[in-house]
Amino acid sequence: MKGQRLMAAAVVLAVGGVVYWLWARPAAVVSKDATDRDQGPAEEAARRAQAGDAQTELPDAPTAVLLDCRQPAGDVARGTKVTVSAADLCADYLRLTGKTGRVTEAIDRRIARDTLDRLLDERLVAAALAEAHTAVSAEEVDAGLARLHMADPTRPEAAEQLKRQGVDVAVVRREVKKRLELERLLTLRAVTEPIDSEIMAEYQAHPERYVKGGVRVSVQAYLARLPRDATPEAVAKALGQAQTFATAVQKQEPDKLAPQLRTVAPLPPFDITDGELEPDLAQAVQKLQPGQWTPPVRTRAGWMVAKVLDRKTGEPRPLREVAAQIVVRLRESRRVSEGKRVLAALRAEAEIAILVQL
Q1: What pLDDT, on a 0 to 100 scale, did the predictor assign at position 274?
Q2: C-alpha distance from residue 10 to each of 27, 52, 148, 294 (Å)
Q3: Which of 53, 62, 84, 90 is spaced 20 to 30 A from 326 at the CA atom?
Q4: Is residue 2 pLDDT above 90, yes or no?
Q5: Average pLDDT, stretch 262-273?
Q6: Is the model's pTM score more than 0.90?
Q7: Which residues touch 351 (CB under 8 Å, ≥6 apart)?
Q8: pLDDT band at 19 (very low <50, low <70, confident <90, very high)
């Protein structure tokens, strides 16, 4: 059972490039896949502002045309160091959405723009490593897969098993390689390691993170479910239902309220701990006390409103036992911020022009 959970986690991290986003994008985006970019313009702007996503704006070429993935031709982006062809963008776009045809709707164009951003970042990092005469080897990618607790995909029987479980090995390898390449580039650019005072500050500021058994929060949640291909209108409608529920539940019994809203359904009670695959939900309940409700939180399944039932905290662990764990946490946090800074600098140096309307 544990192995199956680990495999599921690896799949979630791989699909939609989430492994890469762990380093190059804000932490609020760690658990989100391509469906989370199905948001309307106002909602998307609010999410980016809340997440602190200062993504570099790319200049649009004055002669930009619509992207047509039925007959991709030419380049969609061009800079001094990298180019992205329409064929490459469409291949990634179709893998994420499963859609075909001309990209005309706002949701499709937004996903395509996000996909193009990832391709540009991937190639800029690879170009920077090539200039430094270094690269990530296939053996290093294999080791990265092993750290995700995946079976050796080079063995035919293992590859077949992964395929039956819905895991695209090629996609996983590519995302792991992108993460390792960004790590290599940050190392070359001398990202500093955490010092003792920073380790102590983290230990004192967040003691709940370093207890035996961690912090376990039991919740009762209600979900306005959304399909993967939900339209912007459906996303907005579900959010409205969840907001109505979150407001009304302060005065009414949830089990009586949910049937009135129809689209909001109860889930069985469950526990949230550190390391959840839904970090936004974990963050929302982090400081709530039993009896308190979260606002609507976007999850992979839809909009969720949760009530804290109970909180349990383990015993504090001495600093000497958790110092290595703190170093890993601080190192990853620093690499997220440094990764964003490095990517922004690479974008600025490359003088990229977008040749299609996205």
Answers
A1: 60
A2: 17, 26, 6, 28
A3: 53
A4: no
A5: 83
A6: no
A7: 79, 80
A8: very low
Tell me what pLDDT residue 124 has: 95
Highest mean pLDDT among 85-99, 114-128, 197-211: 114-128
Cβ atoms of 252 and 264 within 8 Å: the answer is: no
Q: How far apart are CA 215 and CA 314, in angstroms?
A: 7
Q: Provide the token pair at 245.
A: 């529920």
Strands 270-272 and 60-66, by their bridges, are unpaired
Listed in order, strand segments (DSSP E) in the chain are: 60-66, 75-78, 83-85, 215-225, 264-266, 270-272, 297-298, 302-313, 353-357
For 126-162, b where at least 16 C-beta lie within 10 A, e where not — what string?
Answer: bbbbeeeeeebeeebbeebbeebebbebeeeeeeeeb
What contacts 173, CB < 8 A, 6 or more positions away?
Answer: 141, 145, 153
Of how many residues is the chain composed?
358
Question: In the chain, where are the structural domains located?
Answer: 2-192+335-357, 215-313
Q: Which CATH number is 215-313 given?
A: 3.10.50.40
pLDDT in the model for residue 133: 94
Q: In this structure, are residues 31 and 304 in contact, taking their beta carbons and an 8 Å threshold? A: no
DSSP, residue by residue, 126-187: HHHHHHTT----HHHHHHHHHHTT---TTSHHHHHHHHHTT--HHHHHHHHHHHHHHHHHHH
- b/e sequence 175-212, b meaning 16+ C-beta within 10 Å: bbbbbbbbbbbbeeeebeebeeeebeebbeeeeebbee
Cα–Cα distance between 22 and 179 in angstroms, integer? Answer: 8
pLDDT score recorded for residue 158:
61
Count of beta carbons in the 10 Å neighbourhood of residue 347: 20
Architecture per CATH, 2-192+335-357: Orthogonal Bundle (1.10)
pLDDT in the model for residue 251: 82
**Shortest CA distance to 136 belongs to which of 80, 83, 186, 85?**
186
